[in-house]
TrEMBL record:
Its cofactor is Zn(2+). This is Small ribosomal subunit biogenesis GTPase RsgA. Its main location: cytoplasm. Keywords: Cytoplasm, GTP-binding, Hydrolase, Metal-binding, Nucleotide-binding, Ribosome biogenesis, RNA-binding, rRNA-binding, Zinc. The gene is rsgA. One of several proteins that assist in the late maturation steps of the functional core of the 30S ribosomal subunit. Helps release RbfA from mature subunits. May play a role in the assembly of ribosomal proteins into the subunit. Circularly permuted GTPase that catalyzes slow GTP hydrolysis, GTPase activity is stimulated by the 30S ribosomal subunit. It comes from Dyella japonica.
Amino acid sequence: MAFQTFSLHQLGWRAEYAQQLTLADFEAGYPARVTAVHRSGLAVLSSRGHGSVVLPHPLVDMHAGVAVGDWVLVEHDVERVRCVLDRQSLVERVAAGGDRQRQSIAANLDVLFVVSSCNDDFNPSRLERYLTLALDAGVTPVIVLTKADIGDGVAGYVAEAEQLMFGVPVVAVNALDDASVSQLEPWLAPGKTVAFVGSSGVGKSTLTNRVIGEAAQLTSGIREDDARGRHTTTAREMFPTASGAWVIDTPGMRELRLAAAEPELDAVFEDVVAFASQCRFRDCHHDGDAGCAVEAAVADGALDARRLANYRKLLREALRAQQTLREQRERGRQFGAMAKQVMRAKRERLGR
Ligand SMILES: Nc1nc2c(ncn2[C@@H]2O[C@H](COP(=O)(O)OP(=O)(O)OP(=O)(O)O)[C@@H](O)[C@H]2O)c(=O)[nH]1
Ligand SMILES: [Zn+2]
């Protein structure tokens, strides 16, 4: 099989990553991009081609934290990660379970395509949720409305989507048609990294396959030696598109839940915030409070009741997520303090 190699630039390398490394780092290793995260290690792609690397022990704890799209420095002589570079952006997921832990899903994305369709699945509240998520991750959102070929009133859906957040591009496409999907090209420049989010059935796989092109799909599962020399079939989770961009498609990407914070919500709900600034009381809950300008705006039709309800809901979730994050950090601090104490006690016992 012919091995495809990519230059650092084609892989999405930027000056910001180089600035994090010392001369010693560059002498000790080479940069590589994580294309999949496995229990046994990481699948990476570098100017040397595809490879498998392991994380050294101090970084293993971070394993769950390393995400597809991350940049790592791999040591020259052993296939081991020397360090993980700081990300330009990070999509995180709040786990569905009781403890609502944050998991890293995709790193260093440039664009998040927020997908919905021009039919009954069109859901502005869900779009707002994903817009907030994109801003929280530090990624530029673009709204893509699929099924423009079969949907009625496409222009109406586009207009509604355009009103959700100022300045966010909205593109209506037929995901089954190459010419139509080519509208996404402005965001698929060489070295850019993108991902698609949206509910089941809106056309994420169809769009992904279109932009990847057939050749790349055939090579998406490649047999290779893993770090222990076993043959494995690695399901890649980052694919080059026909135009030289990268698409990250992981199972986690498909089930994202909001992990956003208040500032991002305020950016998406600028109109609500503007009305709120006119409420009589600064700590107005916009819920039956006297002199509430937000509720007045809903009453006289200046603000959509649906939008306010969604704002309240997302705000509750954001506050809960913040609370969980604080608790996680507190637990982490307590653990760190305990570990230090144990080490000190050990040193004292050994008389050092
Ligand atoms: N006519 C038409 N059909 C589309 C379009 N986009 C997607 N479809 C069809 O809709 C169905 C669902 O599309 P998928 O790409 O599998 O949707 P998905 O978002 O990946 O769904 P999950 O994998 O469940 O998350 C498929 O039968 C597609 O062929 C479109 O723009 N026009
Ligand atoms: Zn109010």
